[in-house]
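Hi support team,

I've been running sequence recovery on a batch of backbones for a student project. Most finish fine, but this one hangs at about 90% for roughly twenty minutes before it completes. I'm not sure whether the input is malformed or the queue is just slow. I've pasted the structure tokens below so you can try to reproduce it. Let me know if you need the job ID as well.

Thanks,
M.K.
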């Protein structure tokens, strides 16, 4: 190796790498926006996030196409930050920002003029007009986001999860849209609200390009005091979600092989030493298709079905 690269650096230790794309995923009403604002406050003030994760100081731009500036200021106040505190946090709210070349150019220039190295976007679905289930179209969306990282600006963007089912885990496999979205980012943070106590949250990390993924950790969002606060409760080790492991493996296999029948998928999984069986795989394939995690299979010979990823169906051959 002729060139020696420096170790990875972080705006938020192990969670948000510098000059990278990080995605925060979660269901509706899982405090994603409060989480984003708390991250912005911690990074702008160089204080530990959740009083646990060290930060590197950076000026921040928040592009919010979900909420107006009045609501964002209210939430900042709830987190103990008034408008005139002087923190280097810039807000662009409901301005119809889109990931188009002209707007990206202007935003990058604004970041350079104001020494901003973290852009927070809430949410992904609001800043593009692509089909989020199309790997081809979403690759173009992420190419626009990569323009920020090439300009030495980190991006943190939110993505909604699909509608919850009895199988939902809150992890990356629950994100809406193409499975290639996870492949396109450098780091993932998932948040899930406890079904019994809505103020308890579980954060997971199912992708970290530069290091080992963090163990899941739990938080409590305290809203009883005058100032709302996230309270870090510690890590715990979960049994891995087998369906998420299998989905990731199936996606990688289909990327390599194009279209495969269930029997052929099972053979490939077995060769990869991933434990499953015909019945389990059949039920999971049905579920993933119903949830939109993979496209509907093409018709094969006889009654067989050919499973594929977007862009590999018969119509394109």
């Amino acid at each position: 190796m002729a060139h020696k690269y420096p170790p990875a650096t972080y705006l938020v230790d192990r969670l948000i790498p510098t000059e990278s794309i990080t995605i925060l995923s979660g269901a509706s009403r899982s405090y994603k926006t409060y989480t984003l604002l708390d991250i912005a406050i911690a990074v702008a003030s160089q204080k530990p996030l959740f009083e646990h994760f060290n930060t590197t100081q950076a000026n921040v731009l928040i592009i919010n196409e979900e909420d107006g500036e009045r609501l964002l200021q209210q939430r900042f106040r709830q987190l103990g930050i008034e408008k005139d505190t002087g923190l280097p946090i810039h807000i662009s709210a409901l301005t119809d920002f889109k990931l188009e070349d002209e707007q990206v150019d202007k935003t990058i220039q604004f970041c350079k003029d104001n020494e901003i190295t973290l852009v927070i976007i809430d949410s992904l679905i609001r800043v593009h007009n692509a089909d989020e289930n199309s790997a081809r179209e979403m690759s173009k969306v992420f190419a626009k986001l990569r323009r920020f990282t090439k300009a030495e600006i980190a991006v943190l963007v939110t993505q909604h999860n699909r509608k919850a089912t009895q199988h939902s885990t809150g992890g990356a496999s629950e994100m809406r849209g193409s499975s290639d979205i996870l492949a396109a980012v450098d780091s993932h943070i998932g948040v899930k609200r406890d079904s019994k106590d809505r103020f308890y949250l579980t954060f997971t990390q199912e992708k970290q390009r530069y290091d080992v993924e963090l163990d899941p950790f739990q938080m409590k969002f305290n809203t009883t005091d005058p100032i709302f606060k996230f309270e870090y409760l510690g890590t715990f080790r979960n049994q891995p979600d087998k369906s998420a492991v299998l989905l990731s493996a199936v996606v990688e296999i289909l990327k390599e092989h194009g279209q495969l029948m269930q029997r052929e998928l099972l053979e490939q999984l077995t060769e990869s030493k991933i434990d499953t069986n015909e019945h389990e795989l059949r039920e999971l394939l049905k579920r993933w298709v119903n949830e939109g995690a993979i496209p509907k299979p093409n018709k094969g010979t006889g009654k067989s079905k050919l499973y594929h990823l977007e862009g590999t169906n018969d119509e394109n051959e």
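--
Follow-up from support: It reproduced on our side and the slowdown came from queue contention, not your input. The longest helix spans residues 135-150. No action needed from you.
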